[in-house]
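Hi R.,

Here are the chain sequences for the assembly we discussed:
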Amino acid sequence: MHIDHHFIEALRNNDPRGIREIYQRYSDQALRWVTQRGGAAADAKDIFQEAVMALYEKALDPSFVLTCPLGALLHVLYSRKWIDRLRGKNREAGVRKEGELRYTEEAFAEDTLTLAEDALAEQARQERLGRAFTELSELCRRMLTLLSNGVKPAEAAVQLELNSVDTLYRRKNACVQRWRAVYLEH
Amino acid sequence: MEEKDIQLLDDYFNDLLKEADRQAVLDRTASDPEFAEEFELRQQMADWPRREAGRQALAENLESIGAAFFDAPAEERQAPVLTATVNRRRWLMAAAAVVLLGAAVWFFGKPEPSLYRQYAQYAPPAFTERGAAEDAALAAENAFEAGRYADALTALDEMLAIEPNNQGATLYKGICLLELNRPAEARAALEPLAQGRSALRADAVWYSALSYLLENKPGACEEALRKLEPGEDHYEAAQVLMKKL
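And here is the predicted structure of the full complex:
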């Protein structure tokens, strides 16, 4: 476990004090990095936040343990976010910057790059699940949210005005299959 | 995925299976990769709505905190933990950036698992403006900034072989040893600086003191911190830290 692991706990707990320390330590570096590459402070703010959110996806796994310096991991995350943003706006510029990024990433340890890739993949998967979720019916969204938050099936059936728990399970199974199908289409 | 497996996963996530059948599902995830992939997706779907609330709460928090660091004009931004800047002409001053903190007061009174981590904060080194030992200096900078402290230490040793009186390299060697959890060696490396009269004396004393935190020796840490004098770098931080020991 790296000594920066307490920042992972801060993210897990949405602890403002720990999160503020992450910004105090690393935001200035992100701001410089982005503005030196033609971005604005607002861009730096967005991609730094997206990088922290990607890290949060890893932090949600209770077995996740940070094994590299947080600053290095965040740097890889926000620099890749920046390249993605450039690629979205201007493919040629994005590809050029990608080459530059590959060069600079050679300085980072293998586990840092692997962790960053895992975090970004997990974030992409969760965003895809989220997009598919929004395409479900209101009843499906309400039902799945209630059950995910630990509401007992009988209580959920009452809240959703369903006749029985069996009906709830049938509806839920159908909602899950619909969600899965839309997710796989995205 | 066969219909019976979809039904099995429905029952699992609806908590309708007996314990032995639940265990059989879990066992199968270890031996059937396709089933395991589907199981993981279903687990993520079961968790997603609950976790989404946490994501939104965190995003709001980040938006609010981030504004203080990115939205404000430069002169109004919250002071970073590292307050000194690197003078690239005199690279030795890079180490003077090992100033601590504004943030120490912020932590005041809050028990933390690692006092060392709270207080051990430093700027990236900037050795490469120096003419001699450039390859080793560049390697040290890159490795240090990437958190590869063992590699940085190797490069710093190469620098010190060429320039044995290089005080900045000595200081960062001590910091690398601390990050590698080798506190006794760190103190030995920092000792000449801590005993001397150079501009890096206070930094060396400070990091020598912090090394005792890694060994859970608060008494020794306090004794070392008392070597800092009013007006020196880290003196105020040391007073705050001593109250927490």
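Residues 91-244 of chain B form a domain with the Serine Threonine Protein Phosphatase 5, Tetratricopeptide repeat fold (CATH 1.25.40.10). Chain B touches chain A through 53 residues (CB under 8 Å).

Let me know if anything looks off.

Best,
T.
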